[in-house]
Amino acid sequence: MARTLTRADFKSDQEVRWCPGCGDYAILATIHSVLAELGVPRERCVVVSGIGCAARLPYYTDTYGFHGIHGRAPAIATGITSARPDLQVFVITGDGDALSIGGNHLIHALRRNANMTIVLFNNQVYGLTKGQYSPTSEVGKVTKSTPAGSLDHPFNPVSVALGAEATFVARSIDNERAHLAATLEAAARHKGTSFVEVYQNCNVFNDGAFDAVRGNRANQIRLEHGEPIRFGDHGEHGVVLCDEAQLEIVDVVDGDEGALLVHDAHREDPSLAFALSRLSHTPRGPTPIGLFRQVSRPVYGTELQRQIDEAVGLRGTGDLGALLAEGDTWTVGA
Amino acid sequence: MKQNPQMLVERVDAVTIRFAGDSGDGMQLTGNQFTSVTALSGNDLATLPDFPAEIRAPAGSLPGVSGFQLQFADHDIFTPGDAPDVLVAMNPAALRTNLASLAPGGILIVNADAFTPANLKKARYDTNPLEDGSLAGYRVHTIPLTSLTPQTLVDSDLGKKDRDRAKNMFALGLMCWMYSRPTEPIIARIRATFASRPAVAEGNLAVFRAGVAFGETTEVFAHAYEVAPAKDMPPGRYRQITGNLALAYGLMAAAERARLPLFLGCYPITPASDVLEELARHKRFGVRTFQAEDEIAGVGAALGASFAGHLAATVTSGPGIALKSETLGLAVSVELPLIVVNIQRGGPSTGLPTKTEQTDLLQAMFGRNGEAPMPIIAAATPGDCFDAAVEAARIAITYRTPVMLLSDGYLANGAEPWLIPDIDGLVDLSVLVNFANADESGDFQPFRRDPRTLARPWAIPGVTGLEHRIGGLEKADGSGNISYEPDNHHRMTLLRQAKVDRIADDLPALTVDEGDGAPRVLVLGWGSSRGPIEAAVRRVRRRGMAVARAHLRHLNPFPSNTGEVLAAYDRVLVPEMNMGQLSLLLRARYLVDVRGYNHVTGQPFTAGELEQAIVEHVKEQSWHAP
Ligand SMILES: Cc1ncc(C[n+]2csc(CCOP(=O)(O)OP(=O)(O)O)c2C)c(N)n1
Ligand code: SF4
């Protein structure tokens, strides 16, 4: 019988070359333990990435790996998982990789629901190209490419994913080991495309970008399926659905949860999940962390296989010789 | 078919017919029906559909004209014909855009009803050409097709639109009579086409029969013609095929011979979409087609599928290749098999989407960043697209490399009789697949090379001990770890080049058709100009001049004797539907002063223009006699 794998078994022999102190280390270590936890044999795991600091991760993981090109990892992964539904496929990407150059592929992967787990390392900056602003950077961000402050309005990755009607959408934080591990494991076990945004600290180009949330539990709205949405150091705040079809933050008076919104991650309609994702557009105010949405929808690769099986079941395996000779033919000579 | 007994049936050896009309007139359908029945009659044939990029340009307008030309013969022919012997013009616009190509004294059949003042104006005629004597040099038959058609439909329940549309069937019937085509297959086909709408089928049939009867009973036609079945065709079972269909079948055949599932990652583009659509129909064969969000995703998914162990392909046209080029560089770097089909069309940019060109050779050769060599092959005829696909798969699998297969709009839509191949007789690709086996030692080397082919192992996920990482960053020779080491990059660059160069050892020599005499001029072609070149060379030889001919299937690498072949002639003429792309490669590689015949019109060469070009070179060469 195969021996149970441990975190160490998933470490490759390659030297990790991220800056000391980078949040990527913690995420890498968590991914390794999640892989061990999943019980998937190394040879059935494929880690695909685009380009960026984050995208170097496949080299550090002792599974099959494909370091692709900037933004295109979801496309490559779609080919892998559609060809081989037996594989456990991860996509490792950054905020620039996934949302700028790869924005098109990301939304289409999410709507298509092929079986893969997309982990977006969001550091709100371009790390590998040394510090330009990214599609998640706040307006006015001063970087080398925006000395007078950036002008474009940022994406909220979770809103984008929910807008694309992804079937699994969650957010976690690089150094929250237990939460990150549980979230990634649930994402990996989800059938279809799962999307996890991870707040990742780039201590070189955007240090402390998430400190307002990361270091401040009072600012985190922990989403728990089936629970009223409460937060604050003593649960003194909560979220209600107000008349204007908007979510609002209220004080919880005398612990009365009656009016609070009860989180339902399995709601078919993504509107409430989307509304939740709008609660904090930037990680300054109260920010939801956790699972926003998990619903089930047919999985692309499985459906493709089903169509093939059905076609074969209906009319048998194709006979190419017969196909070529179909229709009008004629004979020359004897 | 029965002919009017008094009427003479004249035997001719080859005929070229062009149907031209408004894009709503069903000219492509008419042409295809006529082609099918002609194929069944055992003639050799070649077709040239020529349609506007707009699905429906305004009715009656000049840009809205759609044409379909075919040549058929009692011997082997190579082109859809230069000047049509018969032009069927359904309206003034069709007449204006096509009359110039009609052979002097040719037969002109026009739909008289369409020559209304409004239509004449749209076609920019000041006077009615049917009345002003301008058609005096042709045998003109004006037939009121539009008004005759409803007369045959008095008993039918067809609505006005369907009635109007049926007039192309009249033209088809008349042509079938004129060229003694059997009517039964057409009747069967019309019934099949409109199986769900029997009234429409019967209406169309009535009009078709009326067309036949019109030919039989009307005195205006001096005689009908007969073209005997073609001799000299290799014996066997034939069907008619277009390039795109042959390509789809070729990819399926390659997958079957490799015993791998076929994966096509694609994004629709003219003239490539048919291949996606055809393959999507064949799920029973385990074919997976993936219509991606764009070309980049299409080729990315194909590359992913190749990594996962499928025979992967992507089919597109030049603008799509432009988008895919970054991924193609990645494919060169990761050294995985991938078939990349470019069905060339007129450019630059969106250019002429429905017209043909050979202008993407240099894009195929050099259109990537860095030193990224990629084998290139080209299909020569519609049926040859099948063999080219199998050959592309052979090279891709053997050498673990993307391979560029060039077809073009002319091959894609053009049709010819096709000797149905025996699948089991095709090269066995499964022995070349050779997936890497489980490795217990723990030091699997993803870039260790086969000493003969220089191919790296194809190690697919799911196999224990072969876990490895690939990607676009430079890899250390052997281990495949990332390496920025200068000497390693130089070595890997040479290895990737050597791998492609080595394919030449594995290719048939370039053969030359010398003809008679001692030719001093060689005409060298590639791709779809094969037909016109062959026809032109035949004509030049008939004029008593010696000329040699060769055709390249492999454009990177060239067959190993290419240099010798070029050196054996005093002059090498390279006709291309571009500004001299192959010429540039040959001059650079072999330092031979090849001469180009270049012409970029969106139309295939005619045999006539090439004949003239070749004759000039042969004459010039004899003045330069040593
Ligand atoms: C086609 C292309 N354009 C640009 C680049 C340069 N590039 C590399 S990584 C990167 C941004 C990566 O940012 P992000 O995804 O946020 O990843 P991080 O490095 O922050 O982890 C860019 C622009 C490239 N490699 N390829
Ligand atoms: S640049 Fe930023 S994201 Fe990249 S490795 Fe360094 S700290 Fe990490």
Summarize, please.
With 334 residues, chain A is α/β, with parallel strands linked by helices. Chain A has helices at residues 24-38, 73-83, 95-101, 103-112, 157-163, 177-189, 211-214, 271-277, 300-315, 320-324; strands at residues 45-49, 64-67, 88-94, 116-122, 168-173, 193-199, 220-223, 230-231, 237-241, 247-251, 287-294, 329-332.
Give a structural overview:
The complex is a heterodimer of chains A (334) and B (626). By secondary structure, chain A is α/β, with parallel strands linked by helices. Helix content of chain A is 28%, strand content 19%. In chain A, the strands form 2 sheets. Chain A has an 8-stranded mixed beta sheet with strand order 2-1-3-4-6-5-11-7, sandwiched between helices. A 3-stranded antiparallel beta sheet of chain A has the order 8-9-10, with no helix packed on it. In chain A, helix 6 links the parallel strand 5 and strand 6. Chain A is globular. The termini of chain A are far apart. Chain B is an alpha/beta fold. In chain B, 37% of the residues lie in helices and 19% in strands. Chain B contains 21 helices and 23 strands. In chain B, the strands form 5 sheets. A 7-stranded mixed beta sheet of chain B has the order 11-10-12-13-15-14-21, with helices on both faces. Chain B has a 6-stranded mixed beta sheet with strand order 3-4-2-5-6-7, with helices on both faces. In chain B, helix 9 packs parallel to helix 14. The longest helix of chain B has 20 residues. Chain B is globular, with a radius of gyration of 27 Å. The chains are: A alpha/beta (334), B alpha/beta (626). Chains A and B meet through strand 1, strand 2, helix 2, helix 4 and helix 9 of A and helix 1, strand 9, helix 9, helix 11 and helix 12 of B. Thiamine diphosphate binds next to helix 3 of chain A.
